[in-house]
Amino acid sequence: MQKESISILGCGWLGLPLAVSLIKEGYSVKGSTTSEGKLDLLREAGIEPFLVTLDPEIDGEEFCDFLQSDILVVNIPPSRREDIVEFHIQQISSLIDALGQSPVRSVLFVSSTSVYPMLNREVTEEDAVDPESPSGQALLHVEEMLMQETGFQTTVLRFGGLTGYDRSPENYLSRMQEMTAPDQPMNLIHRDDCVNIILEIIRLQQWGEIFNACSPIHPLKRDFYARAAETAGIPLPPAVSVSEPSPFKLVSSRKLESALSYTFTHSGS
């Protein structure tokens, strides 16, 4: 049986290795980039490449061809700009309009745990109310827009604390002058788990869902970076002393673990 065709909007740090993994599993993959210089990189990886920008309207002469797939993975974070909420809403509105003229019937939207405020407790998928950051506000708005559409089914996947490869704690330590909130528990997920979880959602046809995706292990920031400093053989930056406990959230991924029968490959350390 022929597997579905998949388009990935945003073949960057996560989208590119995801595309490579999907191709290995027998899927045909189209991928977009905003950089003309990356088109050959995508092509060499076996991805059908497309040059696409959302500024906020779609700019890409072949965007209709890009959307000739069964499944679309949307992997474009909100742009860092003053009108971040309005701009991201306009971007996704343009995308929704284009999807209405396409054969895509399943959308996987890569979101973030920034949709949760610091509630000083465990948070589940139902706790996304009044995000504190503009990025979280933008993501929650567009999540709701996509979930309300009836022409296709959307699954929202909220990642938190992306790590792995060039996003290693050692790299962050080299730029860190001091450690704030050292006793704050961390929400982390390795890129390998991000890719594997998306593969499982597609394989199991888990559409119309909202999932958190973070390792069930939540190390304290001071412990996480102390281990990284010891491994790298570099000094640990001094911790900033605070009089009040740092606000936190513990992101629960139990719903995802149950629905996918998924066990995280990498712990939160």
UniProtKB/TrEMBL annotation:
Domain named NAD-dependent epimerase/dehydratase: residues: 12-177
A Pfam family of this chain: Epimerase
Superkingdom of origin: Bacteria
Cellular component terms (Gene Ontology): cytoplasm
GO molecular function list: aldehyde dehydrogenase (NAD+) activity
Protein name: NAD(P)-dependent oxidoreductase
The species this protein was found in: Chlorobium limicola
